[in-house]
Amino acid sequence: MRLLLLSNSIAPGYGPLEHAHAVLRDVLGDARTVAFVPFALADHDDYTKTVTDALRPVGVEVVGAHTGEPADVVNRADAVFVGGGNTFRLVTALYRHGLVEVIRRRVYTGMPYIGSSAGTNVAGPTMRTTNDMPIVQPPSFDTLGLVPFQINPHYVDTIPGDTHMGETRERRLLEFLEENDTPVVGLREGTWLRRHDDLLTLGGIEAGARLFRRDADPAELSTGTDLSPLLQTTPRFDV
Amino acid sequence: MRLLLLSNSIAPGYGPLEHAHAVLRDVLGDARTVAFVPFALADHDDYTKTVTDALRPVGVEVVGAHTGEPADVVNRADAVFVGGGNTFRLVTALYRHGLVEVIRRRVYTGMPYIGSSAGTNVAGPTMRTTNDMPIVQPPSFDTLGLVPFQINPHYVDTIPGDTHMGETRERRLLEFLEENDTPVVGLREGTWLRRHDDLLTLGGIEAGARLFRRDADPAELSTGTDLSPLLQTTPRFDV
């Protein structure tokens, strides 16, 4: 299985996906065509154009999943890229178009999967650690399950002196762990997870990631860390 | 109908609910007992104790809805207070305990309703404008519908110069309006909405609120504004 799960598509000081050109080339390998799933944003044509431009230097042809029957577009492509935006909107569309099963089957049989932000969220077993607003109601919070742990993209640290009374990201993830016994990797912006079969590594900028587990203190993860043991996780929800 | 919908329970420089003592007394009127619904947080006893202490100066007796059959506790009380925390956890519990119908019926027949944060979110027709993480999956996003428009508590303005790539609150609410044609009142911290039958007013600290409507620029609302026309809203979702 070949996965590249980006926290986000734009790192400070770079153009869209520019910070990840090298690893994108590596993960895409000899793939020529990429089916782009734009359903997390409202304007599918505009979003597909942005990603087409962003992936041109990587040397692949991009086809919007909305330009035909989405499942057919994904089935005909060499790789799939699920873009960011609103995760509730994305998951609703994945179910509506029968993409949950199609993507899962293709990726489990070797098709490279690229996700960014919401597209990274849905690579976990559920969307329960998304940061997004529930603007539409999907039929289920269950997602692709390409890794057995949860991911929180755009992970941000608590800002000292912040007077806002809303929960911090860390507090939100600890509340997730009150209800569910499944680890969460909080991916800071500019970082990514890369899976090649049984090997899982943390890549990207130096900021790294933060790992949250039930009954354990949160732990810092440095870029380059081998996280393969996380692939042995047995996810448990509503416990 | 008597509602007090607080953005949050703690205003900077005040103890829990202290900023709202006068309006709480006024809305509670001659109510002697308040059923407190603590289900948005994990520790119900601890949360109920905090609220009992916070409401002592207001002169009411607080009973935790978890200390008996929740619907019975609510039915026996003179008023209901739904506390903040995680809205997904709260809504899941409201359905599990049959509280959606019980609270709606009592409040529509005159029982004062106090909400704070998540408890204010659920006073709208849906929970689609909550800021919370979907840590559990409720049977429905539909909520109490005590007002016909949406509320976003803890509303925060965009911070100039913020480099974080996650969506701003305004961006999230505009995405809500891409999918739904229902106004949203973004309540800044320390503010509240008060409904007395057909009269709706914005109260609390000077910061006020921000109104988001489809096909209109967001509008600033000052404290003291009469918002009664919003009660004529016909909410429309998935449009």
Side-by-side strand order of the widest sheet of chain A: 3-2-4-5-1-8-9
Strand content of chain A: 15-25%
Biggest interface found: A-B, 36 and 36 residues
E-strand count of chain A: 11
Family (chains A, B): Belongs to the peptidase S51 family.
Subcellular location (chains A, B): Cytoplasm
InterPro entries (chains A, B): Class_I_gatase-like, Peptidase_S51
Pfam families (chains A, B): Peptidase_S51
Question: Can you summarize this structure?
Answer:
Chains A, B: It catalyses: Dipeptidase E catalyzes the hydrolysis of dipeptides Asp-|-Xaa. It does not act on peptides with N-terminal Glu, Asn or Gln, nor does it cleave isoaspartyl peptides. Two copies of one chain form a homodimer. Chain A is of the alpha/beta class and 239 residues long.
Kindly list the characteristics that best describe this protein.
homodimer; alpha/beta; Rossmann fold; 4-stranded mixed β-sheet; 7 helices; Class_I_gatase-like (chains A, B)
Structural account:
By secondary structure, chain A is of the alpha/beta class. Chain A has a single domain, classed as Class I glutamine amidotransferase (GATase) domain (Rossmann fold, 3-Layer(aba) Sandwich). Chain A has helices spanning 21-28, 44-55, 70-76, 87-96, 99-108, 118-121, 169-179; strands spanning 2-6, 33-37, 61-64, 79-82, 113-116, 150-155, 184-188, 191-196, 199-204, 209-212, 219-221. In chain A, the strands form two sheets. A seven-stranded mixed beta sheet of chain A has the order 3-2-4-5-1-8-9, with helices on both faces. Chain A has a four-stranded mixed beta sheet with strand order 6-7-10-11. The longest helix of chain A is centred in the N-terminal third of the chain and has 12 residues, at 44-55. Chain A is globular, with a radius of gyration of 17 Å. The A-B interface holds A 8, 10, 12, 42, 85-86, 89, 127-137, 140-141, 154, 156, 163-167, 172-173, 175-176, 178-180, 189, 238 and B 8, 10, 12, 42, 85-86, 89, 127-137, 140-141, 154, 156, 163-167, 172-173, 175-176, 178-180, 189, 238. Chains A, B: It catalyses: Dipeptidase E catalyzes the hydrolysis of dipeptides Asp-|-Xaa. It does not act on peptides with N-terminal Glu, Asn or Gln, nor does it cleave isoaspartyl peptides. Chains A, B: It comes from Phytoactinopolyspora halotolerans. Chains A, B: Keywords: Cytoplasm, Dipeptidase, Hydrolase, Protease, Serine protease.
